[in-house]
Amino acid sequence: CVAGRSMSSSPVLCGALINILAENNIEKDNIVVWERSERELERAGYPVNREGRGPKIIANDTPGIGYHNDFSVFGTVGSLVTRVLTDRVDYHVNFPILKDHSIAGLSGGLKNFYGAVHNPNKYHDPNCNPYAADMYCLPEIKRKNKLTIMDCFRIQYNGGPSFRSKYALDSNIILMSEDPVALDTVALELLENHRKLNGLDSLKDAGRYPEYLVTAADDEHKLGVHDKKYIEKVELMV
Q: Which site among 76, 147, 205, 225 is 20 to 30 Å from 49 CA-CA?
């Protein structure tokens, strides 16, 4: 939700996901929607609900949440993880949007977890590699995140992470996968296609290729598949 209502995960899609979970015997009172800050939630159209009925809509800065006291470590990453993940939820669905990022190249599923730790500013150069891959391997994230659903109804192919209307376009696509690397790889292809159609350099030529996806698929991380010839895409028209 960092870019505000114009370029954040859709509250409408989030509400649909909540209804699907409720139809599958998960009580709405037990569902948590969360972000880095309550201010960002409100700006993106998510009214904060700390203790009321229905889904809890909270943030890392909600009183009583904050970050776990013990550092979580993997590779180059050592961070305090939000108590939403450590204490409040048993299973997690990652719900990013698809946009360009001025440093990472791609702001998608793996990069979305920068909002889960207390020190994301430490993990950006060079192009967030290997940090984005290492962060997903933190036990609280890797163990609990079961699914990634990416909102591609609006894609921003340049100028991110802030909203830049001249580089944003509407789409009718939702990406969904249990493999976070494969999903980000397909999202990257979409992003690159729109850059090409609009006369922009590829992210590689621009010096911003998300190499962290290659790292995430290596033998140390084993988070998923990055090689497109091994990714099966199933397209459903609704």
A: 147
Q: Could you give the CA distance from residue 33 to residue 16 in angstroms, rounded to a whole number?
A: 13
Using the structure block, give the residue that is written with the tokens 């990022």.
Answer: 101
How far apart CA 185 and CA 38 sit, in angstroms, is: 30
Q: Are 9 and 44 in contact (CB under 8 A)?
A: yes
User: Mind listing the pLDDT tens digit for each residue in 58-91?
Assistant: 999 999 999 999 999 999 999 999 999 999 999 9
Q: How far apart are CA 73 and CA 47, in angstroms?
A: 33
Write the CB contacts of 168 (distance below 8 Å, at least 6 apart in sequence): 6, 7, 154, 155, 156, 157
Q: Which amino acid is at 168?
A: A
For 125-165, the pLDDT digits (tens) are: 999 999 999 999 999 999 999 999 999 999 999 999 999 99
pLDDT computed for residue 238 by the predictor: 83
As a three-state string, the secondary structure of the chain is CCCCHHHCCCHHHHHHHHHHHHHCCCCHHHCEEEECCHHHHHHCCCCCECCCCCCEEEECCCCCCCECCCCEEECCEEECEEHHHHHHCCCEEECCEEEEECCCEEECHHHHHHHHECCHHHCCCCCCCCHHHHHHCCHHHHHHEEEEEEEEEEEECCCCCCCCHHHEEECCCEEEECCHHHHHHHHHHHHHHHHHHCCCCCCCCCCCCCCHHHHHCCCCCCCCCCCHHHCCCCCCCC
Nearest-angstrom CA–CA distance, 238 and 235: 10
